[in-house]
UniProtKB/TrEMBL annotation:
Gene transcribed to yield this protein: Kcnk1
Keywords, comma-separated and alphabetical: Ion channel, Ion transport, Membrane, Potassium, Transmembrane, Transmembrane helix, Transport
Domain of life, per lineage: Eukaryota
Gene3D superfamilies assigned: 1.10.287.70
Cellular component aspect of the GO annotation: plasma membrane
GO molecular function terms noted in the UniProt entry: outward rectifier potassium channel activity; potassium ion leak channel activity
Entry membrane topology: Multi-pass membrane protein
Chief location category: membrane
SUPFAM superfamilies: Voltage-gated potassium channels
Protein name: KCNK1 protein
One GO term (biological process): stabilization of membrane potential
Keyword Transmembrane helix: yes
Localization per Swiss-Prot or TrEMBL: Membrane
Length: 219
């Protein structure tokens, strides 16, 4: 799914679209991940650590308040305010339809049923399209930063642990015992091989000793 009605029609265009998507999507994800990991250090981790150390508040409480404030700012700056702007710039959109476009876009659903800047009397259409592209890119980064901030909350981490697969203690003990038995058996095998080597050498030594004794007696 996407925006508008621009689609490849020729076989070459479709093949190029597949190759471009296979290469472009992973690189886009890597780019967004790298940007979000750097932004979250300055937006989330350092502010939380600053209030925790400077004012002595609990780190968990500061993290929860910070996540809520960051979420409110993100919703205001990338949902409510843009929806109001779109409702003014787009003649056929009301506030609900504009908010719907913002949500569908920033949630990466991208149905394409509402596309801004498609009106015939749209002024500064090229500049308007560039602004929408910048808005979508910054909004997507902001959404990922907020999600990463909430994922780092201690309470959410505890909730996520409920869905982890827990190993049975008896099963772990069985694996440990099996590992110990394998280690013991390998050691015992090494000791047995050393004894066999000694036994193999003993007859050779004993066969030389009588001859040496006889030679001494003859002398």
């Amino acid at each position: 799914s996407g925006y508008g009605h621009t689609v490849p029609l020729s076989d070459g265009g479709k093949a190029f679209c597949i190759i471009y998507s296979v290469i472009g999507i992973p690189f886009t994800l890597l780019f967004l991940t790298a940007v979000v990991q750097r932004i979250i250090v300055y937006v989330t981790r350092r502010p939380v650590l600053y209030f925790h150390i400077r004012w002595g508040f609990s780190k968990q409480v500061v993290a929860i308040i910070h996540a809520m404030v960051l979420g409110f700012i993100t919703v205001s700056c990338f949902f409510l305010i843009p929806a109001a702007i779109f409702s003014v710039l787009e003649d056929d959109w009301n506030f609900l339809e504009s908010f719907y476009f913002c949500f569908i876009s920033l949630s990466t659903i991208g149905l394409g049923d509402y596309v801004p800047g498609e009106g015939y009397n749209q002024k500064f259409r090229e500049l308007y399209k560039i602004g929408i592209t910048c808005y979508l890119l910054m909004g997507l980064i902001a959404m990922l930063v907020v999600l990463e901030t909430f994922c780092e909350l201690h309470e959410l981490k505890k909730f996520r642990k409920l869905f982890y697969v827990k190993k049975d203690k008896e099963e772990d003990q069985v694996h440990i015992m099996e590992h110990d038995q394998l280690s013991f058996s390998s050691i015992s095998d090494q000791a047995a091989s050393m004894k066999d080597d000694q036994k193999a050498n003993e007859p050779f030594v004993n066969s030389q000793s009588p001859t040496s004794n006889d030679s001494s007696l003859n002398n």
